Amino acid sequence: MSNASIRGALIAAGYEFVQFEPKIPGMWNWRPDAVAWAANSHGALVPWTVVEAQTSSDAIRPEVGLSVLARARDMLGTADHYIVMNGTDWYRADAGLQRLTAVDGPVSPPNGGDGEIVDVDLVTTMLADELWKAAARSHDKGTSEAFRSNSDVVLGLTSFRTATNSLVPVNKETLWQARRHAVVDFERRGTEAGFLTSHKTVAQAVAQLAGPKLSGRILDPFCGTGSFLWEAIDYARKRGTGLGTALGCDVDQRMVDLAGSIGAVSPVPVEIVRTDALLGEGLPLTTSIVSAPPLGLRLQEHHQLLDGTTTRDGDLVALDRIVRLLVDDGRAVLHLPAGITFRRSADRYRRFLATHLRVAAILGLPAGAVPRTGIRSVLLVIDNAEPSDTFIAQLGEDWEAQLAPGGAALEAALTQIDGSQQ
C-alpha cells in the first residue's frame, strides 16, 4: 500500500497529522511505517495510531507484525494499532496487542484529529524539515538571501497547516523549545544556514556556572542565535533564581532576527538588538553575563583596556568590555579560546584580572567544544568581587560527561565557586 493510500484512509477517519517513518528518540535504527496524531482528553495532539504496512505472501500472516506494533506502543504510548496487508487489507490489534481483527479501515479517534500541538519532537521535526526545504529552494536559485528570508518565516510559525488545510496552533512552551532545537539540528546537519550556535553541553554548563547570579537581567553581548541565553533562562526558571529579563546583542542582523524569533516565545521577556559590543557603547550594567565572543578577531584600531594598555586583540577587547559591564558582585561566564590563558601579549591583563577581580574558575576544553573548529577553549568564570582562589581543571576527551549536569568536573567547580553544589 502506498503512503498516499494510508494517508487518505487516516484522513478519512478524521486524523489531521500523519507522519511516515518518523524519528523516534532513543530508537535511531528503527522507525514505524506511519504514525497518526489525534487529540487526547485535554485537547493536546498526541501520537494516537500506528500503522505497520507489510508486503504479504501466502507464507506470511499479519500477526507477525504485532511485535512491531508493541515496540511502537512502548516508545510512543499510542492507543490504536493497525497492520495493512496486500495493499488493501486492514487489521486492527486488540488492546493487549495479542490478536488482530479484519476491519474496513482505521477507526475515527475518540477526541477528534485536531488540537493544540504540545509535542516538542513533532514541532522540531516539522520546523527542521521546513528549514531544509527552504535551503533546497535557495540552493536551486543560487542565493543565500532566499534561505535567510524563508528561514525567518519558518521559525516564526505559530501554527501548522494540516492535510485538510486547517490550522492547528502550537503550545507556546512547545514553540520555545522546538525553535531552539530545530536551529541546532539544522546547524549540525549542514552548512547552509551559517547559524552561530554553541554546543549544548557547553551552554548548559555555562548556565549552571552562572547559577545564583541569574537574577534581574542577564546579558549576552555576542549572542548569535542565543544558545547561552536560552539555557540560562531554563536554568533560572527551574531553580527560581529571580531572573526578570534577558538581553542579547549581535552585530549580524541575521543572528538578531533568528534569536529574536526564538526569544519571542520565551517565558521571560527577551530583547535582541543589533549592536557592536566591541565598541562598548550603550550596553547596560548587569548582574550576569553569559557569552561566547567571536574568536581570533584582529581589530583595525587599538582599544584601551582596564589595565591601561591598548591592543587590537579581539579576544582581549571582548573580555575587557564584558568585565566593564558587571555590577558589584556580578558574574560573567564566558567561552573563550584557550590562548587567552597563556598568550604572552595578555600577561599584563591577566595579572590585572587576578588582582582586581575574582577569577573563580578556569575549565580547559579540548578541540571539539567549539563547533566546526579544531581549537582548544576554556570556560572562564569571573566575579566582580575580591580576588580569591581559582578552580582550575583541564578536561580531556570525556569533557562532555565531565561538564554534563552531575559531572565530576562541573560539580567540583560549583562547590568551590559558590560553596555548595547546585
Summarize the structure.
The protein is of the alpha/beta class.
Protein model, in words:
There is one protein chain. The longest helix is centred in the first third of the chain and has 22 residues, at 120-141. This protein folds into three domains: 3-114, tt1808, chain A (Alpha-Beta Complex), CATH 3.90.1570; 117-189, no CATH class; 200-418, Rossmann fold (3-Layer(aba) Sandwich). β4 and β5 form a beta hairpin. α3 packs antiparallel against α4, α3 packs across α5 and α4 (144-155) runs parallel beside α8 (253-263). It is elongated and about 85 Å long. It has 422 residues and is an alpha/beta fold. The protein contains twelve helices and 19 strands. The chain has an eight-stranded mixed β-sheet, sandwiched between helices. Its EC number is 2.1.1.72. It holds the Pfam family UPF0020.
